[in-house]
Amino acid sequence: MAKKKILKKWSWERKSGWLRISKTEKKKIFDFSEDYKDFLSNNKTEREFVENALAHVKSKGFKDISRLKSIKKGDKLFYSYKNKALILAKVGSSPDFKLVAAHVDSPRLDLKPFPLTEDSDLAFFKSHYYGGIKKYHWMSRPLALHGVLLTKKNKVIKVSVGEKEGEPAFIISDLLPHLAYKQMDKKMSEVIQGETLQILIGNIPLSEDDKHSVKANVLKLLNEKYGIDEEDLAVGELEFVPADKPRDVGIDGSMIGGYGQDDRICAYTSLKALLDSKVGRRTNLALFVDKEEIGSVGNTSANSSFLLNFANMFARLYKAKETGFDLLFNSKGISADVTGAINPLFKDVHDSENASFLSRGVSIEKYGGNGGKYLTNDSSSEYFNEIRNVLNSAKVIWQTGELGKIDEGGGGTIAYILAKFGMDIIDVGPPMLGMHSPCEVVSKLDLFQTYKAYRAFYNEN
C-alpha cells in the first residue's frame, strides 16, 4: 500500500476543529460564548462564583443536602462550605459518583493585613500576590477591588469597586522608560519585586495639618462608605483583579480574551453540563474547590475533608450499604482544568508533536506534573480509553498532549489529590494561551467542546 494511503488510513489527522463542524454548530458555539463572557464578567472571585452558582441552582430546584432527612433518585442537591467550595449533585439510581472537579480561584493580588500606607502625597494599598504570576503583568493596568469586609458587630459587607461604568479603577504605576535604564538591565524575575505591587488608592489630603493626611482621607472615605476602620481592613478579604471585561479576540471573533479563565472556563462548562445532564444510574457530581493556585491547601481546597464529608452524608441519607469513602473509591472522575496551548512565539518550550493546539478541541491529558512526572496523577490506559470512547461516541472534538517540554517546567491539577480515594480520574480541559496572565485567551470552539465532553461524561451512565 502506498505511503499516502497508509497515512490517510491509519494516522491520526489532527486539524483545526473549525474545519470539522457545520455552520449550524458554529452558530451554537458563538451563541454559547456570549453567555460565557457574561459569566466571566460577573464571577471574578471564588466567593462570587459560589454565591452566584448557588442562587442559580436554587432557582432550578436544588436542595441543601445538610437539611434533608433522606435522598432518592432524581433529587437535586447542593452542599456549600465557607462561601468558597461547592458540590452539586443529581442523584441517580446508584450512589456511585461520576465526578467533574474544577477549581474556582485564580491568581490575583490580595491585600496585606495592614495595607494602607502613604508616601510622597500618595496613598497605597500594599498587596501580597496569590498564585503563580509574572509580576510585571500587573503594572500599569486598571484593577478592580472585590471581596468582603467584616465589622466588629459581625456585619458582612460585600465590596466591588472598579467594574461599573463611572466607578474609579486602581493601578500600580510602573517606572517611566526615560528613567528605567538600570531596571531594564535586570533579570525579568527581578524587574518587579513583590513589595513593588502597591496599588494607588488616593491623592487628596484630608487637611493641611495632618502628617499622613492622604491616608487619613482614605480612611475617612472608607468609613463613610462602609462603616469600617483600619482594624477592619486587617480582618477582611479584599482582592484586586483586572478591571477589564472579557471580549472577543481576532478579526474573526474566534477567541475570547479575559481574566480568570484558569479555571473558571471549566467551572462554567462543568456547571452547565451538570445542569443539562440526564439522571441515570450513577449520581452526577460537580465539585468546585478553592486554593488550587497555592497548592490546594486549606479547608476549602481539594485536599480538605469537604468532599469526603459530603460523601459520608450522602451515603447515610441514601441508606447506602457503602461508606462515603467506598463511594469515592468506586467513582469515576474528571479533573476539569486547562492546559497550555502551543504558542508559536515561544515554540522552543513545547514539543510540537506532543502539544495541545488552540481550536483542535478539548485536551485529554494522561498526566501533568514536573520533570519525571512528579506530583501528578498518571491515568491508566484503560481509563483513558474509556473516556476516549465516550467522547468519540458523542462526536466531541478532542486532542491530547503535554503542557511543555519535559525539562522546561510543568504544572499540576487536583487530579492526583482526588486519586488518593482510589477513583479513576484524568485531566480534561481546554488549551489556553497566556495562562495565569491578566488576559488569558481560549478558543470558542474549545470552550464548546469542553462543555460537550463533560456533558457526555455525565450522560454515559
General description of the model:
It is a single chain. The protein is of the alpha/beta class. It has two domains: 15-106 and 259-459, 3-Layer(aba) Sandwich (Aminopeptidase), CATH 3.40.630.10; 108-242, Aminopeptidase i, Domain 2 (Roll). The protein contains 13 helices and 22 strands. Strands 1-2-3-13-4-14-20-16-18 form a nine-stranded mixed sheet, with helices on both faces. The chain has a six-stranded antiparallel sheet with strand order 8-7-10-5-6-9. Strands 11-12-22 form a three-stranded antiparallel sheet. Helix 2 (23-42) packs across helix 13 and helix 8 packs across helix 13. The longest helix is centred in the first third of the chain and has 20 residues, at 23-42. The protein is globular, with a radius of gyration of 24 Å. The protein starts with a helix and ends with a helix.
> Which strands sit side by side, in order, in the main sheet?
1-2-3-13-4-14-20-16-18
Tell me, rounded to a whole number, the average pLDDT.
95
Q: What is the level 1 CATH name of the largest domain?
A: Alpha Beta
* Separation of the first and last Cα atoms: 41 Å
For CATH, the homologous superfamily of the largest domain is named as Zn peptidases
> Which overall shape is indicated by the principal axes computed on the Cα atoms?
globular
What is the strand tally? 22
In CATH, the architecture of the largest domain is 3-Layer(aba) Sandwich
